[in-house]
Amino acid sequence: MARVRARRHGAHKVDVSLVGDYTHARNIDTGQPLPRISPLRVTFAVDYGYGLFGARGDGTRVGTASRAGR
Fold first, then answer.
1. Would you say 48 and 13 are in contact if contact means Cβ atoms under 8 Å apart?
2. DSSP character string of 5-60
């Protein structure tokens, strides 16, 4: 996870974060790929804070499980 303070002005602050992970899943008995497991996931978020108050917006992008059935 990477988090960066993008802006600070008095009590206002904006942080940006990026998280990513990759999964390569196989059945240990057969060696076949496991279905419906997304191999790649990336999440981007923006956090705004003002004193005791804050808000967060984020979005997640996932890859397709295209290895299933091969």
1. yes
2. EEEEETTEEEEEEEEEEE---B-TTT-PBPTT--SEEEEEEEEEEETTEEEEEEEE
Residue 51 φ/ψ, nearest 5 degrees: 60, -120
Amino acid at 48: Y
Give 36's strand partners: none
* 8-state DSSP, 63: -
- Look up the pTM and report it: 0.71
3-state secondary structure of 64: coil
- Can you read off the two tokens belonging to residue 46? 């923006």
Q: Which residues of the chain have pLDDT under 50?
A: 68-70
